[in-house]
Design goal:
Aminopeptidase, Glucose Oxidase, domain 1, Pdz3 Domain, 3 domains, ten-stranded mixed beta sheet, 14 helices, 28 strands, binds zinc ion
Length: 657
């Protein structure tokens, strides 16, 4: 069924093509006086209910006007599948960066950054930076039995935690490779048994029954089935290589081969690690087993715990070769300058928005939606579109007779990697291309696409002396209901600037039911509302570039800003857990954080939070949002196959008031 919005959207589709470039001034419709509601807003709870839809199409189009049309065209473009949900490192985000740069040039902006740090001349629209944690990449691999080579992708894949090495050795069967399972189950007789110099073959998951389901868990698989501790157990017993295989007839959707990207189990090994298909492994084990038993027979024995590690025929020599790199992801902040004039030309205002999103939901999203496109129309094609509309509006104003003769310069920026941890804005504030003291203020547009009941959150109104009063007439002129939050902190890029002692404003229309979900489509946004928000941003920017310089008010952070998404921060970087495997793998622990104080280590797997299961990073974020600084939390984790519980005292995340 078509919603009002989609009817308008269709009409718009047609209209946009006509007026793509010319962003004429909006006809100023009769506007009711705006109201201001002061007070802190918890942005994760701020989800205003839609008060019914306005069937007045003509009125809608009038409200939208040419700026709303242009905005909508940007949103529909940036949120279409071609841009792949704009995850850093993807082709989609590279295309989005080109799109943003194109429109900055269309607005006549000059390059925003110097080509090299420390240079003064600005010659490029890009500020590249590196992100850790790029998935492993296979440069070369081989699996051969004697001189019979197996086919990569069909018969085998290289596991994501494989080391770069090449070995030729006989096999040993290691069952489920579980050191200490349920009811004393173990796959090993002792610590150092006969795996030395052999390639260990092990089953994924845990003992199963005739129906192919776990003997140890009601849910899918228990924590004993985790692959990471199995790999560690085999490596420390001297295996020179490992082969993982799915037990035949196990009831799990993942019967086929994983990919290298989805099989990063725990730390990287120093030995080659492969997964073979059930068919390829069945043929191999029958060849290597003196009794030529099938893989299904071996599974049976392992299910009953009737077997520990068994060396197989020395004459059957298997070669495993893997060459794997783990690199960094390179991504760009995109920036353009609208040069000021007169006595204020060397002072600056920054207008920014993040243009990245979570791609196919491999991070920053509900694990149940992993692999699905997350278009990110509201988050944050909407803010990027508003920023681009602002480039044209301000450039036209600067070129007009209305512009004051003394006006500050404006750096428009699209940040990358916000969803990962404010990385793009933090990179800029740690590698600034402008003197901090020359910056009057930063306006951050993040999720401005779903205005409901004309209610808008504006955060940061307390981040400069007298800022609230300075803003009041502009708020009233807007005709909107402004939820004026004094705090300059929050789960978005303005927090990086606030922490650096720069006055900030954060414009936000609230969360909603498709926040960070595959449903955040272009047709769900509100162009008319966005036009009003852009008009307000324009009015504020016109003041910030020409009026008295603001004086920062608030607490700055020490160096090394944080990655806060909540009022508190744990301080771990969650890694890619095993797909379908519960728990949060700790990729890194930041110094001086709650986690570091509690002794949480890299490689730990966080299993439960105050007794509540942690499925994935999403659950951890949900838990974090419930806490305040000083709260005590019990976290159950697994380290080297052993479970332990640690007491954690939550520390404030520097990114929120
Ligand atoms: Zn966002």
């Amino acid at each position: 069924m078509l919603t009002v919005h989609s009817t308008v959207t269709m009409l718009l589709g047609a209209a946009c093509a006509v007026s793509a470039i010319a962003v004429a001034q909006d006809p100023k419709p009769e506007r009711k006086k705006g109201t201001i509601v002061e007070g802190t807003v918890n942005v994760y709870d701020y989800n205003p209910k839609e008060s019914g839809t306005d069937p007045d199409i003509a009125g809608q189009l009038a409200t939208i006007g040419p700026v709303g049309q242009q905005w909508y065209q940007h949103v529909m473009t940036l949120s279409n599948p071609y841009f792949e949900g704009r995850a850093p490192g993807s082709d989609g985000i590279a295309a989005a960066a080109n799109y943003v740069e194109f429109w900055m040039r269309q607005s006549g902006l000059e390059p925003g950054f110097p080509a090299k740090e420390g240079e003064s001349e600005r010659t490029t629209y890009r500020q590249p930076f590196e992100l850790p944690g790029a998935g492993p990449k296979v440069i070369d691999s081989a699996v051969a039995i004697g001189d019979r080579a197996l086919k990569s992708g069909d018969d085998y894949i290289v596991l994501g935690s494989s080391g770069s090495a090449s070995v030729t050795a006989p096999l040993a069967f290691a069952g489920y490779a579980i050191e200490s399972g349920k009811d004393g189950y173990t796959s090993f007789k002792d610590e150092g048994e006969d795996l030395k110099g052999r390639i260990a073959v092990f089953f994924r998951y845990e003992p199963i029954n005739q129906e192919g389901v776990s003997r140890w868990s009601e849910r899918r698989w228990s924590e004993y089935s985790a692959a990471a501790p199995k790999l560690e157990a085999l490596a420390k017993r001297g295996a020179v290589g490992v082969i993982m295989v799915t037990p035949p007839d196990a009831r799990d959707a993942r019967r086929g081969l994983e990919t290298t990207a989805t099989s990063r189990f725990g730390d990287r090994l120093s030995i080659p690690a492969m997964q073979l298909s059930i068919e390829a492994m069945d043929a191999l084990i029958q060849q290597a087993d003196p009794d030529a038993r099938s893989l299904a027979e071996w599974r049976q024995k392992a299910d009953e715990g009737a077997v520990t590690t068994v060396p197989l025929k020395d004459s059957v020599q298997v070669t495993l070769k893997a060459e794997v790199t783990t690199g960094t992801i390179s991504t760009d902040n995109v920036g353009g300058v609208l040069r000021g004039a007169g006595s204020l030309a060397e002072e600056w205002v920054i207008v920014g928005s993040h243009y990245d999103h979570v791609g196919f939901g491999n991070y920053g999203a509900d694990p149940r939606n992993r692999g699905k496109l997350h278009p990110g129309a509201d988050d944050n094609a909407s803010g990027t579109a508003a920023m681009l509309c602002m480039t044209k509006l301000m450039a036209d104003w600067y070129a007009s007779d209305d512009a004051p003769k003394d006006r500050r310069s404006i750096l428009f920026m699209a940040f990358s990697a916000e969803e990962i941890g404010l990385d793009g804005s933090r990179h800029w504030t740690e590698h600034p291309t402008l003197k901090q003291e020359s910056i009057n203020a930063m306006i951050n547009l993040d999720m401005v696409g779903r205005l409901r009941n004309d209610e808008l959150v504006v955060g940061g109104v307390g981040s400069a002396k007298g800022f609230k009063d300075w803003l009041r007439p502009r708020f009233e002129e807007s005709g909107l209901t402004i939820r004026a939050d004094p705090s300059g902190r929050g789960p978005s890029d303005h927090a990086s600037f606030y922490s650096a002692g720069i006055p900030v404003l954060f414009l936000f229309t609230g969360v909603h039911d498709v926040y960070h979900k595959p449903g955040d489509h272009g047709w769900t946004v509100n162009p008319g509302g966005a036009a009003k928000i852009i008009a307000l941003s324009e009015a504020i920017a016109q003041g910030l570039v020409s009026e008295a310089k603001l004086e920062f008010e608030g607490k700055t952070a020490g160096s090394g800003q944080d990655r806060g998404y909540a009022r508190v921060r744990l301080g771990v970087s969650p890694g890619y857990g095993e797909t379908g495997q519960s728990g949060v793998v700790v990729e890194a622990v930041s110094e001086g954080t709650s986690a570091a104080d509690a002794g949480i280590k890299k490689g730990d797997v966080l299993l439960a939070w105050n007794g509540e299961l942690l499925e994935g990073a999403g659950d951890m974020m949900d838990q974090l949002r419930k806490h305040a600084p000083g709260d005590k939390v019990k976290i159950k984790l697994r380290r080297d196959g052993k479970e332990l519980e640690v007491d954690v005292t939550m520390k404030a995340s520097k990114s929120r008031g």
